[in-house]
Amino acid sequence: MPLPAITAILTPRLTVRPVAGADLDDLLEVNGDDAVTRFLPYKTWQSAEDGRAWLARMEALDATGTSRQLVIERNADGKVVGTVLLFRFDEGSARLELGYVVGRAHWRQGYAAEALLAVCGHAFGQLAVRRIEAEVNPGNAASNALLQSLGFVHEGMFRQRWISKGVATDTNIYGCLAHEWLRGNRAA
């Protein structure tokens, strides 16, 4: 069975929902910033064409049933401020991986924490996921701290795990189990 579709996950300030073509202008602001993409595995977007190519890749990935590309939309004005990717869904192990990004203009406003709290609660609850994993560059202090604040456990570091933008990079591995999430009252 594929990863179930997600229509919308609501929080007090945000709606986390599937990406659409109309989101690309806002996402160009997010992904067109070198400071934002510094730790991401893809190059900074230079044009609307980069966004369309990314969307085509995300739609193809979604069609496999192993991922869902979502956007973080601010309820007050409909502005898309970032993305959340649920991917590498393994039905037999009831696990998936988590990726996310928020535009620099929206940093330090709690949007990532609010969105991830809701998405993880949904994954552990309605989607019946048993384990969520995330990989983070050790140099990305904000992302490492965010995951730990949400109850993810630092499980180790893989040395030179990825080649990103021509450089071999280490990656911190984080995991969170459903029973830990629920025990921590994190069911969003």
UniProtKB/TrEMBL annotation:
A GO term, aspect molecular function: acyltransferase activity
Q: What class of enzyme is it?
A: transferase
Provide the E.C. number(s) assigned to this enzyme. 2.3.-.-
**What are the record keywords, sorted?**
Acyltransferase, Transferase
The residues covered by the N-acetyltransferase domain are 14-174
Q: Sorted alphabetically, which InterPro entries does this protein's record hold?
A: Acyl_CoA_acyltransferase (IPR016181), GNAT_dom (IPR000182), Ribosomal_N-acetyltransferase (IPR051908)
This protein's superkingdom? Bacteria
Query: PROSITE patterns under this entry?
Result: GNAT (PS51186)
The name on file for this protein is: GNAT family N-acetyltransferase
Its source organism is Caenimonas terrae
